Amino acid sequence: MRWTVHLDGGPRRVNHAAVCCRDLIYSFGGYCTGDDYRFNESIDVHVLNTQNLRWTLLPQKKDENGTVLKYPEVPFQRYGHTAVAYKERIYMWGGRNDESLCNFLYCFDPKTLSWSRPNVTGVVPGARDGHSACVIGNYMYIFGGFVEEINEFSCDVHALNFETMEWRYVQTFGVPPSFRDFHAAEHIHGRMYIFGGRGDKHSPYHSQEEMYCPEIVFLDLKTKVWHRPSITGKVPVGRRSHSMCKLDNLEDILRDNIKVKFFSVIYNDLIYVFGGYNGLLDQHFNDLYTFDPKTNCWNLVKPHGKPPTPRRRQVGIVKDARLFLFGGTSPCPHAAVQEQTSLIDNNDTHVLDFKPRLKTLAILTVVEKRIDTTCLPKELRYEIRAMTQPNSISRPVNHAG
After folding, report:
1. DSSP secondary structure string, 63-89?
2. DSSP label at 91?
3. Which of 24, 20, 158, 142 is nearest to 86 (CA)?
4. How far is CA 263 from CA 112, 124, 172, 257, 322, in A?
5. Deepest of 88, 173, 281, 307, by most Cβ within 10 A of its Cβ?
6. Given a cut of 90, is residue 252 above it in pLDDT?
């Protein structure tokens, strides 16, 4: 396991949401400190090609008269929202700008690069940000977040049936996770695992007396019962705005049967947690933990290579046994000790390779040792440039007269 890539020049974004479809990662919205998010400008969509590691900004959609589509036809620029994939469509829900929140469901079609608003029925959850969403079967499950209309944190579960487009409140049993926002959720074996997030001593109300829960809790989607497993290992410090993910289907990752067998023993069915922030400690993290749902054991892992700087509000997406991590907020490295509140929004992209190929390790050696590449094949020189040359985001051409 090794951090293999660190490229600057990507989208400078915080509290964005992203989904991987085929070889492309679509990143929706987010914000950058200093920009104005009071108005309902159209959301931006950046795309990362996981093969050549290049970013592209998609052009804004226009109507038949050439006018750029605005909210509510397309989502407004937002942060604290969620995005999930279902049957080669991407569904975005929730989030806010500096003035308002949204609880419309939007659908993005990666083939046509267009937005739509599916008609939904049932009890639509109250608009919120800082919630989590994951897909299990044909349902999208929403948990937690901060519901501004009632000015409260949430610990409720809502489900959207993608086949019927019906929302419903999910009645759960047992003791749910405490009220929180900016936690993370991941599903595995019919369970929805919840870890981290920010709560309040006076929850569900927001009194600025923050709490950070270090427990990992899961909801059994068959019985709708919450469980708190007995944990062993090195438990991460409670945190919010971290990344939590698991590997894709192993059959799609490695086609060689021997590699699949080996990989399943070492990596299969593990949940990964990276980074985040604890406000009580005023500390950002760049640590990496694994959680094994089979043994309920936490483990602090230290990959080879140079890790990303400590950060929160980044996005982490797993594709083909690689974790792509980008954006987020970090303490300014040049700030004085007494100015630790000085923060910087990142525009970098990192890749963690869970099992780097010999070819990748050779490329890293060439780069680290500054070996002359002129005698190498053209294709190999191209790969080296892709892994080392900073991004320059490809932007759409404005054909307006």
Report:
1. -TTSPBP-TTTSPBS-BS-EEEEETTE
2. E
3. 20
4. 35, 41, 35, 10, 13
5. 307
6. no
H or E segment and range at residue 361: helix 358-368
204, 146 in Cβ contact below 8 A?
no
With beta carbons less than 8 A apart as the criterion, state whether 83 and 46 touch: no
Within 13 Å, how many C-alpha atoms sit on residue 98's CB side?
10
Question: What tokens appear for 112 in the block?
Answer: 């046509």
- Is 269 within a domain? yes
Q: What's the CA gap between 343 and 277, in Å, rounded? A: 12
Give the containing element (helix H, strand E) for 192: strand 191-195
How does pLDDT run across 79-125, given as a tens digit for each residue?
999 999 999 999 999 999 998 999 999 999 999 999 999 999 999 99
CATH of residue 246: 2.120.10.80
- Quote the number of domains for the chain: 1
Q: pTM, whole model, 2 decimals?
A: 0.91
Report DSSP letters for 233-273, one per residue.
Answer: E-PPPP-BS-EEEE---HHHH--SHHHHHHHHHHTTT-EEE
Query: For strand 232-233 and strand 297-301, is the pairing parallel, antiparallel, or unpaired?
Result: parallel
Q: Could you tell me what percent of the chain has a pLDDT over 70? A: 91
> Per-residue DSSP letters for 152-169?
EEB--EEEEETTTTEEEE
DSSP state of 339: G
Domain with 188 in it: 11-357
DSSP 8-state class, residue 205: B
3-state secondary structure of 214: coil
Cα Rg, the chain, nearest whole Å: 21
Residue at 5 is within a domain: no
